[in-house]
Design brief:
mainly alpha, Fic-like fold, two-stranded antiparallel ribbon, globular, binds zinc ion
Length: about 250
Amino acid sequence: MMCPEHSARCACRDWDYRKFDDKKHTKAKFRSKMLLARLRSGEVPERIYLKDTRPVHKALFEGMTAKGCGYFAGNYRGSRDCLIDYDVTIGFDRRGEVIGTTAASNVAVEMDALHAEISADIKSYFSEQSSEEVAAVEADVSKPAEGDVEAGGGIADGDVDEDTFIKNLDIALEHMVNLMIIHPYANGNGHVGRFLLFCFLSLMGLAVEDWPLDERPPEPYDFFIARFREGFPNELRQFVIEQIIGDE
Ligand SMILES: [Zn+2]
Ligand SMILES: [Zn+2]
């Protein structure tokens, strides 16, 4: 596909941020660490990041773009100039068919829909549920102990509802995978997708130990994503849980 800005060959096609970093990808790695630190410190609330990923993409890749096209960092495919008609395929499926991503012209609409879904899910599964839980714990604690009911039992360590955790993790994974299918950016979608997941985990009070933002997870990660898309969430879910536990 031809870029409308440059009738012949456009230097922005096949943009790869790594070509603008040093060999060890120091810049991208450092920025990833900074971003995660900011998330962990609570300096920027997760909800802000989950509303719009473009500032995250910009923070990661600013200045690592072709000359004159700095807007590649922090803007969707289809949004302007060399990004108009910037369509992307992401390899082949098991039948050898090209896996397409969302057409550039449709990215903004689909991302708006994705963020609307995320906001709705946070409302119904994360914040409201946790404020209900807080209310329940408060009621439990203020209740005078009677019979064999232990006072304050509701806030005991290890009182984690595993079913709720798995349900919420699946919601987060679905949003991450959907972002990767839309593929809103010309490059760096994996970083942004993982960051989205980290934001959800952070909402659940968790941090991944072993899965840096800046590195593509080891195989068979891509296969697990494909399986998730086919309706089999177990492998990807298990993979992420292992990363949360870390090496112990
Ligand atoms: Zn350009
Ligand atoms: Zn161009």
